[in-house]
Amino acid sequence: MTTTDSDSDSDLVVPLSIPIVRSYERDDEDAVIELWRRTWQATYPAHDFAARVAWWRERWRTELVPMASVVVAELNAVILGFVTIDDSGYLDQIVVAPEAWGTPVATQLLDEAKRAAPTGIALHVNKDNARAIRFYERQGFSIGGEDVNPRSQSPVFMMCWRP
Asked: What is the CATH number for 137?
């Protein structure tokens, strides 16, 4: 969304809202956990993600944050998304608020992951998450195999990006 400055003679177009991308901070935890819950609930409404919050918080604290680079996208002090990528180039999570689907937020976050892992990225995506698969393919990822998520037992694709 843009606006034109009508108080001047120029045709300056100024963006009204550009999310900033920054490193995760400990104070972001509650917002990130709630964003994870809301986003997964919107993606898979038949599942009860509220019941999984304690498990997710523990995984977040013990498996993801200590071992990965975490970047958030924020607009007006509201976190709209986050991405985690470890030193091996494995992207475990990219989560974007449902209200930000179709905006540049996911691309901004994935670009940060690509900067953190310039030799390549690997990830798993649920086979039934067509929206995410299309996004990854548009971003240059290809399907490199099939697997089963050891936690959910859901079938997944292994997807890879190489520069």
From this structure: 3.40.630.30
